[in-house]
Design goal:
The protein is an all-alpha fold and about 200 residues long. It has one domain: Globin-like (Orthogonal Bundle), CATH 1.10.490. Helix content is about 55%, strand content about 0%. The protein is built from ten helices and two strands, in the order ααααββαααααα. The chain has a two-stranded antiparallel sheet. Strand 1 and strand 2 form a beta hairpin. Helix 3 crosses helix 5 and helix 6 packs across helix 10. The longest helix has 22 residues. It is globular. The termini are far apart.
Length: about 200
Protein backbone atom coordinates (compact mmCIF):
# COMPACT_ATOMS: atom_id res chain seq x y z
CA UNK A 1 0.00 0.00 0.00
CA UNK A 2 1.44 3.38 -0.95
CA UNK A 3 1.48 6.25 1.50
CA UNK A 4 -0.95 9.13 0.98
CA UNK A 5 0.38 12.33 -0.50
CA UNK A 6 1.59 14.37 2.46
CA UNK A 7 3.55 17.57 1.85
CA UNK A 8 7.14 17.15 2.93
CA UNK A 9 6.87 13.38 3.29
CA UNK A 10 9.84 11.64 1.64
CA UNK A 11 10.05 7.98 2.62
CA UNK A 12 11.25 6.11 -0.49
CA UNK A 13 12.18 9.38 -2.21
CA UNK A 14 15.11 8.51 -4.52
CA UNK A 15 16.37 12.12 -4.37
CA UNK A 16 17.30 11.82 -0.69
CA UNK A 17 21.02 11.35 -0.09
CA UNK A 18 22.00 7.87 1.01
CA UNK A 19 22.67 7.48 4.72
CA UNK A 20 26.39 7.38 5.48
CA UNK A 21 25.74 4.67 8.09
CA UNK A 22 27.16 1.37 6.84
CA UNK A 23 25.00 -1.73 6.87
CA UNK A 24 27.41 -3.31 9.35
CA UNK A 25 27.14 -0.34 11.73
CA UNK A 26 23.36 -0.40 11.38
CA UNK A 27 23.21 -4.12 12.20
CA UNK A 28 25.47 -3.55 15.21
CA UNK A 29 23.19 -0.74 16.40
CA UNK A 30 20.13 -2.98 16.13
CA UNK A 31 22.06 -5.65 18.02
CA UNK A 32 22.90 -3.20 20.81
CA UNK A 33 19.18 -2.45 21.11
CA UNK A 34 18.30 -6.19 21.15
CA UNK A 35 16.14 -5.46 18.10
CA UNK A 36 15.50 -8.51 15.94
CA UNK A 37 13.05 -10.34 13.71
CA UNK A 38 10.65 -11.01 16.60
CA UNK A 39 10.41 -7.25 17.08
CA UNK A 40 9.68 -6.71 13.39
CA UNK A 41 6.90 -9.31 13.61
CA UNK A 42 5.50 -7.64 16.73
CA UNK A 43 5.48 -4.27 14.96
CA UNK A 44 3.57 -5.78 12.01
CA UNK A 45 0.97 -7.03 14.48
CA UNK A 46 0.87 -3.59 16.12
CA UNK A 47 0.23 -1.97 12.74
CA UNK A 48 -3.20 -3.61 12.50
CA UNK A 49 -4.05 -2.50 16.02
CA UNK A 50 -2.84 1.08 15.70
CA UNK A 51 -3.96 1.90 12.14
CA UNK A 52 -7.43 3.11 13.13
CA UNK A 53 -6.17 4.80 16.31
CA UNK A 54 -3.56 7.11 14.78
CA UNK A 55 -5.57 10.30 15.35
CA UNK A 56 -6.23 9.34 18.98
CA UNK A 57 -2.50 8.70 19.52
CA UNK A 58 -1.69 12.06 17.95
CA UNK A 59 -4.24 13.74 20.21
CA UNK A 60 -2.34 12.40 23.23
CA UNK A 61 1.04 13.44 21.85
CA UNK A 62 -0.11 16.88 20.74
CA UNK A 63 -1.76 17.45 24.10
CA UNK A 64 1.58 16.69 25.73
CA UNK A 65 3.57 18.99 23.41
CA UNK A 66 0.91 21.71 23.59
CA UNK A 67 0.90 21.53 27.38
CA UNK A 68 4.70 21.65 27.64
CA UNK A 69 5.80 25.24 26.93
CA UNK A 70 9.45 24.44 26.22
CA UNK A 71 8.36 21.92 23.54
CA UNK A 72 5.58 24.03 22.05
CA UNK A 73 8.15 26.81 21.63
CA UNK A 74 9.61 24.97 18.61
CA UNK A 75 6.35 25.66 16.76
CA UNK A 76 5.96 29.32 17.76
CA UNK A 77 6.25 32.11 15.20
CA UNK A 78 8.69 34.64 16.74
CA UNK A 79 6.84 37.52 15.05
CA UNK A 80 3.49 36.74 16.66
CA UNK A 81 4.68 34.76 19.72
CA UNK A 82 1.87 32.31 18.90
CA UNK A 83 2.02 28.66 17.82
CA UNK A 84 1.86 28.35 14.04
CA UNK A 85 -1.28 26.29 13.43
CA UNK A 86 -0.44 25.47 9.82
CA UNK A 87 3.00 24.23 10.85
CA UNK A 88 1.53 22.09 13.64
CA UNK A 89 -1.01 20.63 11.21
CA UNK A 90 1.61 19.81 8.56
CA UNK A 91 3.86 18.13 11.10
CA UNK A 92 0.88 16.22 12.54
CA UNK A 93 0.13 14.69 9.12
CA UNK A 94 3.72 13.50 8.76
CA UNK A 95 3.77 12.31 12.38
CA UNK A 96 0.65 10.22 11.75
CA UNK A 97 2.26 8.61 8.73
CA UNK A 98 5.43 8.08 10.79
CA UNK A 99 3.41 5.95 13.25
CA UNK A 100 2.29 3.67 10.42
CA UNK A 101 5.75 3.66 8.85
CA UNK A 102 7.30 2.71 12.17
CA UNK A 103 5.13 -0.41 12.31
CA UNK A 104 5.79 -1.28 8.66
CA UNK A 105 9.48 -0.36 8.37
CA UNK A 106 11.68 -2.64 6.33
CA UNK A 107 14.91 -0.97 7.53
CA UNK A 108 16.40 -0.72 4.05
CA UNK A 109 18.56 2.03 2.52
CA UNK A 110 15.54 4.18 1.63
CA UNK A 111 14.31 3.96 5.23
CA UNK A 112 17.78 4.89 6.52
CA UNK A 113 17.94 7.87 4.15
CA UNK A 114 14.56 9.07 5.46
CA UNK A 115 15.80 8.81 9.06
CA UNK A 116 18.73 11.05 8.13
CA UNK A 117 16.31 13.53 6.60
CA UNK A 118 14.12 13.53 9.72
CA UNK A 119 17.23 14.24 11.81
CA UNK A 120 18.19 17.15 9.55
CA UNK A 121 14.69 18.58 9.93
CA UNK A 122 15.15 18.82 13.70
CA UNK A 123 18.68 20.23 13.47
CA UNK A 124 19.56 23.80 12.51
CA UNK A 125 20.70 22.60 9.07
CA UNK A 126 17.12 21.82 8.09
CA UNK A 127 14.65 23.04 10.73
CA UNK A 128 11.75 25.04 9.23
CA UNK A 129 12.83 24.48 5.61
CA UNK A 130 10.32 21.78 4.72
CA UNK A 131 7.32 23.92 5.63
CA UNK A 132 8.96 27.30 4.91
CA UNK A 133 8.02 28.60 8.35
CA UNK A 134 9.50 30.97 10.86
CA UNK A 135 9.95 29.16 14.17
CA UNK A 136 12.77 28.18 16.52
CA UNK A 137 15.67 27.31 14.21
CA UNK A 138 16.92 24.25 16.10
CA UNK A 139 15.66 21.53 18.42
CA UNK A 140 18.37 20.52 20.90
CA UNK A 141 19.37 16.88 20.82
CA UNK A 142 18.40 16.47 24.47
CA UNK A 143 14.72 17.00 23.59
CA UNK A 144 14.94 14.80 20.50
CA UNK A 145 16.16 11.91 22.66
CA UNK A 146 13.97 12.67 25.68
CA UNK A 147 10.80 12.40 23.61
CA UNK A 148 11.48 8.68 23.17
CA UNK A 149 9.88 8.18 26.58
CA UNK A 150 6.51 9.92 26.07
CA UNK A 151 6.22 8.54 22.53
CA UNK A 152 6.87 5.06 23.89
CA UNK A 153 4.98 4.89 27.17
CA UNK A 154 1.81 6.46 25.78
CA UNK A 155 1.55 3.79 23.06
CA UNK A 156 0.96 0.85 25.37
CA UNK A 157 -2.71 1.61 26.20
CA UNK A 158 -3.49 1.83 22.48
CA UNK A 159 -1.82 -1.53 21.85
CA UNK A 160 -3.95 -3.05 24.63
CA UNK A 161 -7.31 -1.84 23.30
CA UNK A 162 -8.17 -4.76 21.04
CA UNK A 163 -8.08 -7.73 23.37
CA UNK A 164 -4.62 -9.14 22.77
CA UNK A 165 -2.91 -11.07 25.53
CA UNK A 166 -0.68 -9.29 28.02
CA UNK A 167 2.29 -11.12 26.51
CA UNK A 168 1.40 -9.91 23.01
CA UNK A 169 0.91 -6.33 24.19
CA UNK A 170 4.20 -6.43 26.08
CA UNK A 171 6.03 -7.77 23.02
CA UNK A 172 4.52 -5.12 20.74
CA UNK A 173 5.27 -2.38 23.22
CA UNK A 174 8.87 -3.53 23.69
CA UNK A 175 9.34 -3.60 19.91
CA UNK A 176 7.78 -0.13 19.58
CA UNK A 177 10.07 1.26 22.28
CA UNK A 178 13.16 -0.26 20.66
CA UNK A 179 12.38 1.07 17.20
CA UNK A 180 11.51 4.56 18.51
CA UNK A 181 14.87 4.67 20.29
CA UNK A 182 16.58 3.30 17.18
CA UNK A 183 15.09 6.11 15.11
CA UNK A 184 15.91 8.80 17.67
CA UNK A 185 19.52 7.61 17.67
CA UNK A 186 19.60 7.81 13.87
CA UNK A 187 17.99 11.27 13.96
CA UNK A 188 20.79 12.47 16.25
CA UNK A 189 23.49 11.90 13.60
CA UNK A 190 23.47 15.53 12.34
CA UNK A 191 24.17 16.65 15.92
CA UNK A 192 27.43 14.68 16.13
CA UNK A 193 30.82 15.82 14.92
CA UNK A 194 32.29 13.83 12.06
CA UNK A 195 33.63 10.57 13.43
CA UNK A 196 31.67 10.82 16.71
CA UNK A 197 28.41 9.15 15.70
Amino acid sequence: MSAPVIPGYKLNDPTLPRSPLSQRDFEELKGSLLFGLDDVAALRKAQGIIADQVEAVLDVWYSFVGGTPHLLAYFVDPKTSQPNGEYLTAVRKRFGQWILDTCAANYDNAWLAWQDEIGRRHHRIGKNKTDAVSAAPHIPMRHLLALVVPISVTMKPFLAKKGHTVADVDAMHAAWTKTVLLQAILWSRPYAKDGDF
